[in-house]
């Protein structure tokens, strides 16, 4: 009955016994209760449907139906053993049958369930397949089309991508160290504008930039912090500084291993969710339950290919991550190995396989449809660093300055030199030799960070194996000549006097130190103290200052005449008492209502139980009801779906929005009523 070799069937039955899915009864092997119900409706499992007649009767009925009806029967069998047909009448006779569906019902080859569904009985499916459970053998894995490719070529190409990954991560995190992008509300991800800006800075596509950002977050190099203005922003962690001190191969192993174990789905960035909203990079819910397993299974298939063999031409994933002809073979193979893997949300098996193949080549684990030698080691849980280190070029400690205001790096630069050069110049093109261009803006950027012209000249001379071109020297000097000619500072008020001695005496007065005075000219002094506070302070020092108008004329401030607020007119007799009585009654009603509400609420949960309920809801993806106090001290309740807890805050989905609740303000948590 099983379309497989005896040895394969024996091994399969032994595995089912080991996993307690079948057991030995007096009548032979039987499936555990519930297994048949779970499998029913899957492709190729119509043999599990209830039996309606003996095999001989089924064969005679099959020979009696029309070719159109048999074709429909075969389609139902291929579709899982069930079909919908609301127009087919149940219980019709062969003479009354109209159409192939009613003809099959009349012969007992399809059974109507009464709710518009037609079910294929198990023995009918067996008869259609010649007494076999499936048409094709189930013990023969679908083949993966391959072609020959030198393993050394795959290793070198993948190592080049690994080097680009590490360098781009350095550039990304260095840039975000200086200007960290702000997070969406409640830590809900990165804005579309910041993603586009990052892609332009790295000379990469937006999907590639999203992958780099997600990998940086998954590897712990990036986290949500607070900028100088107190706003949540994405910035490098302390681990980034330690990561920079490691050899390049070790840095790659750290981030590639984090990607391999991460449930995040960078391929979703830019697409729309079921509600029509765009997925943002670093969004809290940008993860999939089967992402890690599918990623490892896909890479496991590549790693299992013989040495010198890669997926055949046409097996590269498309730009959108969808499976083309080649990934379709991988999807078919994974479906054979894991036929019961469900579809979760939008990440179908086809999409996950396509994203995995694309990301593996971008990150440097694979190239040309084949796994690199060190990539195989990483997937197998072994140390890939020694193998990758032998494939990476030795870093160089110099550049070649050109007369067209560019510098050519003849190889991968040492990390310190690359980061320093990126401050003074801008990367113009990547490749075997990176080209940097010097501009007035790039030189001014270095000076904004505290560099002087002398320091820039010294750096260029030390870093270049060629003489510094005269044009570059002039560029640095011209930029330095105009740098700082206009200065901006803080001043809240100014003092002007034709008596220079009076200003000098004021500056020398010990009591004037707190006024923040600074002399700009013989007759002009500025102060960091506001005018309203400066005037009385100067008068305390014995001066008699006057306020100067914007046009230079003297403006003597005259205080406004103050008046008390007029009282209301005399109220009628008894009105005051009635007003007080009404207010007292209203206050008493509010107090009683508050007591009643408080009595009906459950007692506040202990912190430990509150956290336990929240963590259980996060793991199960369920909603809870939280009682909290907002920033104004107003108590309220909300039905939320907890997404994560970080830094003393709960990120939760409220309807279609993601909000953040301080854990210290949450009074109680209870499960939602059934």
Main beta-sheet strand count, sense and barrel state:
5 strands, antiparallel
Strand tally is 25
Q: Strand order, biggest sheet?
A: 24-23-22-21-25
Q: Number of helical segments?
A: 24
Q: What average pLDDT do the residues reach?
A: 81
Shape: flat
Describe this structure in words.
The protein is an alpha+beta fold and 674 residues long. The chain is built from 24 helices and 25 strands. The longest helix is centred in the N-terminal third of the chain and has 28 residues, at 151-178. The chain is flat and about 125 Å long. The two termini are 46 Å apart. Residues 40-52, 315-324 and 557-573 have low confidence and may be disordered.
Describe the structure in brief:
This protein is 42% helix and 15% strand.
Key attributes of the depicted protein:
42% helix, 25 strands, five-stranded antiparallel β-sheet, alpha+beta, four-stranded antiparallel β-sheet, 674 residues, single chain, flat
Structural topology:
Elements: H1 6-18, E1 22-25, E2 28-31, H2 35-39, H3 55-64, H4 67-78, E3 82-84, H5 100-106, E4 111-112, E5 117-119, H6 122-128, E6 146-148, H7 151-178, H8 192-202, H9 206-218, E7 222-226, E8 232-236, H10 238-244, H11 248-260, H12 291-303, E9 309-311, H13 325-337, H14 349-363, E10 366-367, E11 370-371, H15 373-379, H16 385-389, E12 400-401, E13 406-409, H17 415-424, E14 426-429, E15 434-437, H18 440-448, H19 453-463, H20 470-482, E16 493-496, H21 500-508, E17 517-521, E18 524-527, H22 531-540, E19 547-548, E20 554-555, H23 575-600, H24 607-620, E21 624-629, E22 635-646, E23 649-654, E24 657-662, E25 666-671
Helix pairs in contact: 3-6, 4-5, 7-11, 8-9, 9-11, 12-14, 13-14, 18-20
